[in-house]
Design a protein that fits this description.
Largest sheet: 8 strands, mixed
Radius of gyration: 18 Å
Order of helices and strands: HHEEEHEEEHEHEHHHEHEHHH
Number of strands: 10
Shape: globular
CATH topology: Rossmann fold
Structural class: alpha/beta
CATH architecture: 3-Layer(aba) Sandwich
């Protein structure tokens, strides 16, 4: 979900990596089915969800990392993903299937650490429940949780879904192939999968916004909505931090929803701590 002030940062969020000084970077378009292909750039084993490319260069200094263009997401303020357009809306299960096929086609060996922002948190957790042997660590950057829905009234949730997932952000309506998501179906998929295969014990780092959402583009809104969303969001973040033993949780006091833009070093540090814990598990329980 882009908000008013954050919309101006879209070019930072999704700028093409192009020719960069990473260690063994690859920029490839890979066929994932007979009808579609996805664009990826890898140095391999930390998987960054779209919107996280601002931290790619720093993360690539200490581990192998892979980022990719999800169909309908932004490369920059004027260009959509280079991946093949697909019918919208999509669900978390669609995204899991795409990424799994992409990683196989790219011959990127697991297991993986996932770093995911916003809706990417639902998707990353669904991937971990679907392929539990393939995910060994996770960083959730102000990630959506199914608990947000239960923390809002049905009317408030419908309002949130409308501006967060099913309607383009004001200013980007001209892009006919922009990603839209079926949030309700995706949450149902996540809850069913997590019930059958809960997140396994692993290093988990939760980063939470310290500043409220900027809801200016969607005004007028009910007067009680911003406060209700903020309360539900933070309660849900606390819940995310209970999904794995010894999970770490930090509030990014200077950031709203896009922590990777406003305080990118926090995201880099969180990923580094999780990677180090995967390599040397005692480091996770020894330091907080």
């Amino acid at each position: 979900m882009c908000t008013a002030k954050e919309l101006s940062s879209v070019s930072q969020l999704h700028k093409p990596l192009g020719k960069v000084a990473f260690h063994f970077p690859r920029l490839v378009k890979l066929p994932i089915s007979s009808k579609s292909a996805m664009d990826a750039r890898c140095t391999s084993s930390v998987a960054l969800e779209p919107g996280m490319t601002t931290v790619f260069p720093q993360v690539a200094k200490f581990t192998r990392v892979c980022a990719y263009d999800r169909p309908g997401t932004f490369l920059d303020g004027n260009h959509l993903s280079r991946s093949t357009p697909v019918p919208m809306p999509r669900t978390a299960r669609d995204l899991v299937s795409d990424l799994h096929a992409l990683l196989e086609k790219a011959h990127v060996p697991g297991p993986y650490v996932f770093a995911a922002h916003s809706f990417g948190g639902i998707f990353a957790r669904l991937y971990a429940s679907t392929y539990p042997n393939n995910v060994v660590g996770m960083v959730l950057v102000d990630a959506l949780s199914e608990k947000v829905k239960s923390g809002l009234t049905p009317e408030q949730w419908k309002l949130y879904v409308n501006f967060g997932f099913t309607k383009p952000t004001p200013g980007v309506e001209k892009y006919k192939d922009i990603e839209t998501l079926d949030a309700n179906a995706s949450l149902d998929q996540m809850e069913k999968a997590a019930s059958a295969e809960p997140l396994r014990p692993m290093p988990l780092f939760v980063l939470t916004q310290g500043q409220p959402f900027d809801l200016t583009p969607w005004q007028p809104l009910p007067a009680d909505f911003p406060g209700a969303l903020d309360k539900a969001w933070h309660a849900a973040q606390d819940e995310l931090a209970t999904l794995a033993p010894n999970a770490r949780h930090r509030v990014a006091t200077k950031s709203a929803h896009y922590i990777q833009v406003q305080e990118p070093q926090l995201v880099v540090d969180a990923i580094k701590q999780v990677v180090e814990a995967v390599r040397n598990p005692p480091t996770w329980t020894a330091a907080r």
